[in-house]
Write a structure and sequence with these properties.
With 143 residues, the protein is an alpha+beta fold. The chain has one domain: 2-Layer Sandwich (HIT family, subunit A), CATH 3.30.428.10. Helix content is 29%, strand content 20%. Strands 1-2-3-5-4 form a five-stranded antiparallel sheet. It comes from Halomonas caseinilytica. Keywords: Hydrolase. This is Diadenosine tetraphosphate (Ap4A) hydrolase.
């Protein structure tokens, strides 16, 4: 099986935050929406159903905990968790904290307007806040 590498589009559109037990945790480079992307480190996988049961459980654990981290660090009204893969077929999961007053509410964020990239200071500050919460969590699923 080939080595894992994130799809070029994911690398282009996101910033790496950290490595979790299963996934790379990345931040979408769009300051309009608090938006994490989890990319399971499994080469050649494009669907959740292609993961074994243990990886499926771990993916869901990491997604829900990532959502908790977003809600702890930032304010929001609704947490969206989704896989699409219509543009990037490599399995990845979106965890997006929505606000009633965000640019796309109540519609989906995909394809809505132009991304507003983070400035480096805001990016560094947000990454530090996320990492502080992430480091306090046991990310491994119970046996």
């Amino acid at each position: 099986m080939p080595d894992f590498e994130p799809d070029a589009r994911l690398i282009e559109d996101t910033y790496p935050i950290t490595e979790l037990p299963l996934c790379q945790l990345r931040l979408m480079n769009d300051a309009r929406f608090p938006w994490l992307v989890l990319v399971p480190r499994r080469a050649g996988v494009s669907e959740v159903i292609e993961l074994d049961e243990a990886d499926q459980r771990q993916l869901w654990r990491e997604a829900t905990l990532a959502g908790s981290v977003l809600k702890e660090c930032l304010t929001g009204d609704k947490l969206n968790i989704a896989t699409l893969g219509n543009v990037v077929s490599q399995l990845h999961l979106h965890v997006i904290l929505r606000r009633h007053d965000d640019d796309a509410w109540p519609a989906p964020v995909w394809g809505h307007g132009q991304a507003s990239p983070y400035d480096l200071d805001t990016l560094a500050s947000l990454r530090d806040r996320l990492l502080a919460e992430i480091e306090a969590i046991d990310w491994k699923a119970p046996a």
